[in-house]
Design brief:
The complex is a heterodimer of chains A (371) and B (324). Chain A is an alpha/beta fold. Chain A has three domains: 212 residues, P-loop containing nucleotide triphosphate hydrolases (Rossmann fold, 3-Layer(aba) Sandwich), CATH 3.40.50; 63 residues, no CATH class; 91 residues, no CATH class. Chain A has 16 helices and twelve strands. In chain A, a hairpin with a 2-residue loop joins strand 1 and strand 2. In chain A, helix 2 packs parallel to helix 11, helix 10 runs parallel beside helix 11 and helix 14 runs parallel beside helix 16. The longest helix of chain A is centred in the middle third of the chain and has 18 residues. The N terminus and C terminus of chain A are likely disordered. Chain B has two domains: 96 residues, no CATH class; 220 residues, Orthogonal Bundle (MetI-like fold), CATH 1.10.3720.10. In chain B, a hairpin with a 4-residue loop joins strand 3 and strand 4. Classes of the chains: A alpha/beta (371), B mainly alpha (324).
């Protein structure tokens, strides 16, 4: 039912691709369920700026199993991209201070230096960035950019590395890869360029792919193709996917789980279908209301969330969302403005939420909007 | 590519035609009479007319210019003297064709420019990259401070002081001066050493600062982050990926500076007593040797046009998005 709302994103047959996820769910069996591939605990990312310290990520925790897709959702400035970069320590070390644990396959990456991290970057954890035009070097051929790190890591020769690059380009659906591998990024269309980025991520057979807004720079039909590609690759290789996006359509199409972020904190988390069907946080409700639907009343106005994202140099006290929240009157006293709500599990479910409002109060209220 | 070379070649010719026409107009159409100047103090009307005729000044300006162009491409006569193909005129002051004088003087200026450029680029760019990679640390601050001192130096000051100390007092470097590279390479190198170093200290400083900021700018590009995300070691990330982005900026600056270098060559050549084109230009102006002035202007213009074309070619080599 949720999927039907976002039909436009499911270019093929959505039920089919969901089946493939179910297969990959059992990919790692019970062991993976015991120890997640990635466990982020109390992650904080701070930037020292002239105006003060920006708390981009503030005490964030989540985990991700092999073969699963976790979508991290939020507006710009919610800290979702900062989270993705922090996992691989890609922030500028002069400016960013990172604390907390980033446990990947039993190793705390947050405690590693550049050299230690280099062993994970590109090989076990790969990144796909938003805008492939700026994220790929305009000065080097695709071959060079795909094989540089690969050759260094594996000691492969030029020819063998090239062959592999061509294979990866073919795998992500780039026509005539043997010829195109010698071209430069500007010679590719936007969608093809994003495929190149994904091919680059696949060069090292990673266990985890962090895709930071991989479809934002693309038009809608190409977005669907790229998402299908990522889902297909996940089904093939069982990789875990951390999908950073502001687009709830993307979430409903490919994610198993979703983590909604606001002002550097998690505000709602749970299985994607459940969260989208019955959001438990006013911010999630606001996000869903601001997405156009195909099945809804075509004349109905979209309802954007009032106000603007908080100033991270000077975040509001209490719940960071409270100045924009239309439900705060329903919470007794002035708790929303004084007390930071804990990010705690909801009763009888896998879901977590950070809100002072009683659980279930929103579902009855907003159900009609979502459906 | 070949279309581009053709276009650039034609463009260069056009620019030089315009430059020559403007120089021609400026120096021949002004009230000062070249013939009168060449004639000297004991000038009889007969000899004045004679000189005027042999310089071609008794013809209309357009005809004179046409004859000048004809001389450039096919040579021409000045009375009994035959001036061969790239004939830029005949200096009545020196009793020598302009082209042969220029040919004598050009190698000295070229040696100065090429050697100094090599030093400036290697030292300036090298330290600039180093400062960028160590930004905020002690080395960066020291380099930036030294660069500031260097940039506020002038060739004539630093050159004279260095010459006095390093050459005259402590005999660490040979006397500056130009010797033909073919006649004695060792002496050529020794004589150019002090001028090169002086120019490098003064100009490399600018390049340290410029390269530093270009490199910092390039380091913030997203593709550099991608290179890091792939697990490439810092050396490769900085020197292969980031530097490639900074290189275009540095090259642009260098292209612009070539003209400035040529202008400052007047001072450099005078300071180190090198008989190059720039010094020739100065003496020609002092002697009001108009054909020679035209010649030096044209050579300088050609030099700049050729260098800029070379820089544009380098762009295409560095950045594949630039289509020739």
């Amino acid at each position: 039912m949720v999927a039907s709302v976002y039909d436009s994103y499911d270019s093929n047959d959505s039920s089919d691709s969901y089946d493939s996820y179910d297969n990959s769910d059992s990919y790692d069996g019970k062991e993976a369920a015991v120890r997640p591939l990635l466990a982020v605990e109390d992650l904080a990312v701070r930037f020292d700026t002239e105006g003060g310290t920006v708390q981009a990520v503030n005490g964030l925790s989540f985990s991700l199993q092999r073969g699963r897709t976790l979508a991290v959702v939020g507006e710009s400035g919610s800290g979702k991209s900062a989270t993705g970069l922090a996992i691989l320590g890609l922030h500028d070390r002069r400016r960013a201070r990172i604390s907390g644990r980033v446990e990947f396959d039993g190793v705390d990456l947050a405690g590693l230096g550049e050299r230690g991290l280099a062993a994970y970057r590109g090989s076990r954890i790969a990144m796909v960035f938003q805008d492939a035009l700026t994220a790929l070097s305009p000065y080097h051929t695709i071959e060079r950019q795909l094989t540089d790190a690969y050759r260094r890591r594996t000691g492969a020769g030029r020819r063998a590395a090239r062959t592999r690059a061509v294979e990866m380009l073919a795998r992500v659906g780039i026509p005539d890869p043997a010829r195109r591998v010698a071209e430069y990024p500007h010679e590719f269309s936007g969608g093809m360029r994003q495929r190149v980025m994904i091919a680059m991520a696949l060069m090292g057979e990673p266990d985890l792919v962090i895709a930071d807004e991989p479809t934002t720079a693309l038009d809608v039909t190409v977005q669907a193709q790229i998402l299908d590609l990522l889902a297909g690759l996940q089904a093939e290789s069982g990789l875990a996917l951390l999908l950073i996006t502001h687009d709830l359509g993307v979430v409903s199409g490919v994610a198993h789980d979703v983590l909604v972020m606001y002002a550097g904190r998690g505000v709602e988390q749970g299985p994607a279908a459940e969260v989208l069907a019955g959001p438990e946080h006013p911010y999630t409700v606001g996000l869903l209301r601001s997405v156009p639907t195909l099945k809804g009343d075509p004349d109905a106005d979209l309802t954007p969330i009032a106000g603007s994202p908080p100033d991270l140099l000077d975040p509001p006290p209490g719940c960071a969302f409270h100045p924009r929240c239309d439900q705060r009157q329903r919470v007794g006293g002035d708790r929303c403005a004084t007390e930071v709500p804990a990010f705690v599990p909801l009763a009888d479910s896998e879901r977590l939420r950070a809100c002072h409002l009683a659980s279930g109060a929103l579902e009855a209220l907003e159900g009609s909007v979502i459906r | 590519m070949f279309g581009y070379i053709l276009r650039r070649g034609l463009g260069a010719v056009l620019i030089l035609l315009v430059v020559s026409a403007v120089t021609f107009l400026l120096f021949y159409a002004l009230p000062a009479d070249p013939a009168r100047l060449s004639c000297g103090k004991t000038c009889t009307p007969q000899s004045l007319a004679q000189i005027r005729h042999s310089m071609g000044l008794d013809r209309p300006l357009a005809v004179q210019y046409w004859q000048f162009l004809h001389g450039v491409f096919a040579g021409r006569h000045f009375d009994a003297v035959w001036c061969a193909a790239p004939c830029l005129g005949y200096s009545f002051v020196n009793q020598q064709s302009v082209s042969s004088t220029l040919a004598d003087r050009f190698p000295a200026t070229l040696s100065l420019a090429v050697g100094a450029s090599v030093l400036i680029l290697t030292v300036g760019v090298g330290f600039g990259i180093l400062a960028a990679l160590r930004r905020g640390r002690a080395l960066d601050k020291q380099l930036t401070a030294v660069a500031l001192v260097g940039a506020s130096m002038q060739v004539y000051f630093l050159g004279i002081v260095a010459r006095y100390l390093l050459v005259d007092q402590f005999d660490l470097l040979p006397q500056p001066g130009y010797t033909g590279i073919t006649s004695d390479p060792g002496k050529w190198f020794g004589g150019m050493l002090l001028p090169w170093i002086t120019l490098a200290v003064v100009s490399a400083a600018t390049y340290v600062r410029f390269t530093r900021s270009a490199m910092i700018e390039a380091e913030s590009q997203e593709y550099v982050r991608t290179a890091r995300a792939q697990g490439l070691p810092p050396r490769v990330v900085h020197l292969r990926y980031a530097w490639r982005g900074a290189l275009t900026l540095v090259l642009t600056q260098f292209g612009l500076d070539l003209g400035v270098f040529l202008g400052s060559a007047v001072i450099t050549e005078t300071t180190f007593n090198i008989h190059g084109i720039a010094q020739l230009a100065v003496t020609s102006v002092t002697n009001l040797d108009l054909p020679m002035i035209t010649g030096t202007v044209l050579v300088a213009a050609t030099f700049i046009v050729v260098c800029n074309t070379a820089v544009d070619f380098c762009y295409a080599l560095i950045d594949p998005r630039v289509r020739l």
